[in-house]
Amino acid sequence: MGRYKVSVILRVVVAIFLILALGNYPYGFYTLLRWFVTITALYTGYLFSKVGSREWAWVLFITVVVFNPLAPVYMAKSTWHVVDIFVAGIFVFSLSRKEIKDAG
Question: Out of 16, 79, 91, 104, which residue is the most buried by the measure of CB atoms under 10 Å away?
Fold first, then answer.
Protein backbone atom coordinates (compact mmCIF):
# COMPACT_ATOMS: atom_id res chain seq x y z
CA MET A 1 0.00 0.00 0.00
CA GLY A 2 1.44 3.38 -1.00
CA ARG A 3 2.02 6.38 1.24
CA TYR A 4 -0.82 8.27 -0.39
CA LYS A 5 -3.35 5.50 0.32
CA VAL A 6 -2.16 5.24 3.93
CA SER A 7 -2.59 9.00 4.27
CA VAL A 8 -6.12 8.85 2.84
CA ILE A 9 -7.15 6.08 5.23
CA LEU A 10 -5.64 7.90 8.21
CA ARG A 11 -7.36 11.19 7.31
CA VAL A 12 -10.77 9.54 6.91
CA VAL A 13 -10.49 7.62 10.19
CA VAL A 14 -9.25 10.68 12.10
CA ALA A 15 -12.04 12.87 10.68
CA ILE A 16 -14.60 10.31 11.87
CA PHE A 17 -13.05 10.19 15.33
CA LEU A 18 -12.97 13.98 15.53
CA ILE A 19 -16.71 14.05 14.88
CA LEU A 20 -17.23 11.27 17.44
CA ALA A 21 -15.29 13.41 19.94
CA LEU A 22 -18.34 15.66 20.16
CA GLY A 23 -19.84 12.98 22.40
CA ASN A 24 -19.01 12.35 26.02
CA TYR A 25 -16.17 9.85 26.37
CA PRO A 26 -13.59 9.01 29.04
CA TYR A 27 -10.45 11.16 29.14
CA GLY A 28 -8.40 8.32 27.61
CA PHE A 29 -10.37 8.59 24.36
CA TYR A 30 -9.35 12.22 23.95
CA THR A 31 -5.72 11.45 24.78
CA LEU A 32 -5.68 8.71 22.15
CA LEU A 33 -7.40 11.09 19.72
CA ARG A 34 -4.61 13.64 20.26
CA TRP A 35 -2.04 11.00 19.33
CA PHE A 36 -3.94 9.94 16.19
CA VAL A 37 -4.53 13.52 15.02
CA THR A 38 -0.91 14.48 15.69
CA ILE A 39 0.55 11.47 13.86
CA THR A 40 -1.84 11.83 10.91
CA ALA A 41 -1.28 15.59 10.57
CA LEU A 42 2.48 15.17 10.85
CA TYR A 43 2.59 12.41 8.25
CA THR A 44 0.24 14.14 5.83
CA GLY A 45 1.98 17.49 6.35
CA TYR A 46 5.26 15.79 5.49
CA LEU A 47 3.76 14.42 2.27
CA PHE A 48 2.40 17.85 1.31
CA SER A 49 5.75 19.50 2.04
CA LYS A 50 7.54 16.83 -0.02
CA VAL A 51 5.60 17.89 -3.14
CA GLY A 52 5.96 21.61 -2.43
CA SER A 53 2.46 22.35 -1.13
CA ARG A 54 3.65 24.58 1.69
CA GLU A 55 0.26 26.04 2.57
CA TRP A 56 -1.19 22.62 3.33
CA ALA A 57 1.95 21.56 5.12
CA TRP A 58 1.71 24.62 7.40
CA VAL A 59 -1.98 24.04 8.14
CA LEU A 60 -1.25 20.47 9.14
CA PHE A 61 1.84 21.35 11.17
CA ILE A 62 -0.22 23.93 13.10
CA THR A 63 -2.70 21.12 13.74
CA VAL A 64 0.20 19.10 15.18
CA VAL A 65 0.96 21.92 17.62
CA VAL A 66 -2.67 22.24 18.76
CA PHE A 67 -3.20 18.49 19.26
CA ASN A 68 0.29 17.57 20.50
CA PRO A 69 -0.19 15.15 23.41
CA LEU A 70 3.29 15.80 24.84
CA ALA A 71 2.71 19.53 25.33
CA PRO A 72 -1.10 19.72 25.44
CA VAL A 73 -3.09 22.83 24.73
CA TYR A 74 -5.94 23.18 27.21
CA MET A 75 -9.29 24.64 26.15
CA ALA A 76 -12.89 24.49 27.30
CA LYS A 77 -14.84 21.51 26.00
CA SER A 78 -17.06 23.79 23.91
CA THR A 79 -13.97 25.30 22.28
CA TRP A 80 -12.57 21.84 21.57
CA HIS A 81 -15.84 20.95 19.84
CA VAL A 82 -15.37 23.85 17.41
CA VAL A 83 -11.71 22.94 16.88
CA ASP A 84 -12.59 19.26 16.33
CA ILE A 85 -15.19 20.09 13.68
CA PHE A 86 -12.82 22.55 11.97
CA VAL A 87 -9.92 20.08 11.91
CA ALA A 88 -12.18 17.26 10.70
CA GLY A 89 -13.15 19.60 7.85
CA ILE A 90 -9.47 20.25 7.12
CA PHE A 91 -8.77 16.52 6.87
CA VAL A 92 -11.82 15.90 4.68
CA PHE A 93 -11.09 18.87 2.41
CA SER A 94 -7.45 17.80 2.11
CA LEU A 95 -8.69 14.58 0.51
CA SER A 96 -9.59 16.62 -2.58
CA ARG A 97 -5.95 17.71 -2.92
CA LYS A 98 -4.35 15.15 -5.19
CA GLU A 99 -0.86 16.67 -5.38
CA ILE A 100 0.41 14.41 -2.59
CA LYS A 101 -0.45 11.41 -4.72
CA ASP A 102 2.93 12.12 -6.36
CA ALA A 103 4.66 11.75 -2.98
CA GLY A 104 3.59 8.19 -2.48
Answer: 91
